[in-house]
Write a structure and sequence with these properties.
Strand order of the largest sheet: 3-2-1-4-5-8
Structural class: alpha/beta
Shape: globular
Bound molecules: nicotinamide-adenine-dinucleotide
Oligomer: single chain
Order of helices and strands: EHEEHEHHEEEHEEEHEEHEEHEHEHH
CATH architecture of the largest domain: 3-Layer(aba) Sandwich
Amino acid sequence: MGTRILVTGALGQIGTELVEALAEKYGLGNVIATDVRESDNCRSLDVMDAEGILSLVEGEEITEIYHLAALLSATGEKNPELCWKVNVDGLENVIAAAKQHDCRLFAPSSIAVFGPDCPSIAPQVTPLNPATVYGKTKVVGEQLAMTSDVDMRGLRYPGLISYKAPAGGGTTDYAVEIFHAALAEGHYTCFVREDTQLPMMYMDDAIRATLEIMDVPAEKLGNARGGYNIAGCSFTAGELVASIQRHLPDFTCSYVPDIRQKYADSWPDDIDDDVARSEWGWAPKYDLDAMVDAMFTGLRS
Ligand SMILES: NC(=O)c1ccc[n+]([C@@H]2O[C@H](COP(=O)([O-])OP(=O)(O)OC[C@H]3O[C@@H](n4cnc5c(N)ncnc54)[C@H](O)[C@@H]3O)[C@@H](O)[C@H]2O)c1
């Protein structure tokens, strides 16, 4: 039997593009998109509903699960209990179904696993002491990848930048919102300081990384398989503004940091992705200017 895919959280920033890419690779009929939110192209599935996941996996003869349902950092810190339930209990429900039906599983991690004690260029192996509940849920996810007896793989996505769907309540949302504000108003009020530097990645690179890691034979993946560091491009909010001004010279930005500054300050500036590069050939294609150019092309078309 061929590959049959379940995507959870499919209506989010990543799911919107990953479902398209998976449908292109495996055929639209082989990709079952689900989300807790209602939509025409998506089945209703709450990842808190263990029975619902099981019956869908069984009924649709699923062989691979891309588990994207989660609460992100900014939303999660407002409701830490719900964040834990959705991100950890939800993942455990998905793992149980994957185990019972021998499915391979992709479950993303995040740069939020790193805490204030991490070096400014985050190594693959370093103590993980995240400052947020969201980050803690991602550390648990990585541990489950190593202990659950399922072929489960993850990537520590940096902040993802895309134009097809809005960002979903994370700390790096400013790097997406800024493009919409630049085009609509010519001005953006940024919720982190101008010198705030974070690891980021254009969505095309993130989708390609996701497809690539799932194509690697299991025996090639080492102890980082629950959450590989992958670097895209790393820049400050001020550098992003300067790159946008290449397209819109009159664009202005002011900086009014809020609570998300604290989360940003607890994360590294950049990522060391040597392990992903050597184990499965990871390499990003988009630097800051290429990403900004692609965003404007996408938003204007
Ligand atoms: N976008 C980023 O910059 C980024 C960075 C690092 C890691 N990640 C991780 O990637 C994954 C997907 O992120 P995203 O940016 O697409 O998030 P998003 O918030 O845009 O989308 C998440 C989706 O999950 C759905 N959802 C929430 N609760 C659910 C539930 N109980 N059952 C089913 N669906 C539910 C939401 O409706 C939403 O459509 C998450 O695990 C996130 O932690 C994202």
